[in-house]
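subagent[fold] <- orchestrator: predict structure for attached chain, return C-alpha cells only, no commentary.
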Amino acid sequence: MKIISLFCLFILGTGYNNNAQITNTNHPNSKGFVIHGHIEGIENGTKIYLHNVDEQVNIDTAFSENGHFILTGIVARPTTCWVECKDQYAIIQVENTNMEFNAPINNMRCMQRQKGAGSRTYKLN
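subagent[fold] -> orchestrator:
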C-alpha cells in the first residue's frame, strides 16, 4: 500500500498527463516569420501567395495595398518557398525572422531582392 501511495504522489507531483503538449515560447521557431513585401506594378487587392516548394502547400495569402503586402507563418526549418503574384513568381528562402521582399511584377523571379536574418541580402540577376 505504501508503494502505491508513493507512486500516486509521484504521478501527481510530476504532472503526468498523456495528452499534454509543452510549447516553449522562447524557442526561435515559436515566433515565426513576417515578410514585409512590395511588388511594383500591381493593383490594389491583388493576391500574393506564399507556397512551400517541398511540401506543395500554401503557407499564407495576402492582398496588396499600393503594392505592399505582409505574409506571416511558422516554418520548422529554413524552407524554400515561392512568392507568387498573377503569373509571376520568385523563389525565396524563408526563416522564422522578419524579412523583406521587393520585386517588380514583370520578370519577378530575376529581379527580386530578399532581406532576411542578419545582414544577408539576396539578389538574382
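orchestrator: received. Logging for downstream: The beta strands are 33-40, 47-52, 57-63, 68-73, 79-85, 88-94, 98-104, 113-115, 121-123. Residues 1-29, 118-125 have pLDDT under 50 and may be disordered.
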